[in-house]
Amino acid sequence: MITFYPGPSKVYSQVADYAQEAIRSGVVSLNHRSAGFMDIVKETRRLLHEKLAIPSDYHIAFVSSATECWEIVAQSLTVTTSLHPYGGAFGKKWMEYAHRIKPMIVPGEADVLCVVQNETSNGTQVRMDTLAQFRREFSGLIAVDAVSSLGGLAFDWSLADVWFASVQKCLGLPAGLAVLIYSPQALKQAEIIHDRQYYNSLLFIHENMAKDQTPFTPNGLGIYLLMRVMQQVPPISDVDELIRNRAADWYQFLENETGWELLIQKPEQRSDTVIAVRGREEAIRAVKADALKSGITLGNGYGDWKSTTFRIANFPAIEEWEIEQLKSFLRTY
Ligand SMILES: *Cc1c(COP(=O)(O)O)cnc(C)c1O
Predict the structure, then answer these.
(1) Rounded Cα–Cα distance for residues 18 and 172 (Å)
(2) Domain residue extents for the chain
(3) 6, 30, 233, 313: most buried, per Cβ within 10 A?
(4) 233 lines ligand 1 (CB under 6 A)
(5) Which InterPro entries match (predicted)?
């Protein structure tokens, strides 16, 4: 089965071997405060810095999900409340989670700006020049949800203080782990707020990470698989080029070689990693069912576009032959 689902998405094909390796070698049974395990944590962070070109003064921590990162930003980094300029279902959900913790009582006094870089629900993205504009105009911290683009696109990390992603989308790994990246400025803010109330308070996580440890028993298998995948992938600038070329091809193909309509009309708003295709409800239902018969899983629509779109993940774990197979299917459809 070939899958273009945007999350959980196709895992790198090598992950099957890496998982077997982790179990056979006993990595998954290592105590998480042992030297062997701490070496894996340390090496995984080193590789993330290297392969994703993350600035050396930005910190990296491992938590469980992007949803958890939403709460960490609200609990540990937000003084008054946060501002959420969103354009889709995940952005809205983030705002709802954050405002349950730090309600917006007086509009305009927010000290954290929360941006979803790639809105998985409708296939739109916030480009680096827009983020740069936010950076110029907003004096507080900026937090970026990059769940469906981190690992696929090159970012200007300096444009935000917090970046995070769970690993089951663009990073091509099984769910249950998230990467949380934060700047020295974010850490300073956490120290001022001094939240130590929760098991996942950022300061508590940070102090553990300084020892290559985590507050609770982490997803050791997930961290090991992330390390192995980071060893295997090319530098992010190369991956970025591949993904942008593939995205341009996809949009060109859908517009010129099929009768489908793109959900997002303005090319500059279109995502490079999640492509949303629009159609009549019956046509969408039929194409998904027929694709399944051909061994291809298309992504369902999400939220408001549940029944009138399908989505195509354009993540680096997806291979050229799989893309060709979906194109052949869509050509004849
Ligand atoms: C999937 C997704 C999430 C939620 O990720 P979890 O790992 O389930 O917490 C958050 N934001 C975006 C943009 C997503 O695509």
Answers:
(1) 13
(2) 2-8+235-332, 15-232
(3) 6
(4) no
(5) Aminotrans_V_dom, PyrdxlP-dep_Trfase, PyrdxlP-dep_Trfase_major, PyrdxlP-dep_Trfase_small
- At 29, the amino acid letter reads S
For the beta carbon of residue 320, count every other beta carbon within 10 angstroms. 9
Q: For residue 148, give the nearest of 128, 178, 183 by alpha carbon.
A: 178
Backbone phi, psi, residue 153, to 5°? -120, 150
* Distance between CA atoms of residues 68 and 101, nearest Å: 12
Task: Give the nearest ligand 1 atom to 7 CA.
Answer: 1
Does residue 298 have its Cβ closer than 6 Å to ligand 1? no
The residue assigned the tokens 């440890």 is: 213
Residue whose CA lies nearest to ligand 1 atom number 5: 66
* Alpha helices, H only, the chain: 15-24, 35-52, 66-72, 89-101, 128-137, 184-193, 202-209, 220-232, 236-257, 281-293, 320-332
Grouped pLDDT means (10 residues each) for the chain, 333 residues: 96 98 96 96 98 98 98 98 97 98 89 98 98 98 98 98 98 98 98 97 98 96 98 98 98 97 97 97 97 97 94 98 98 86
pTM reported for the whole predicted model: 0.98
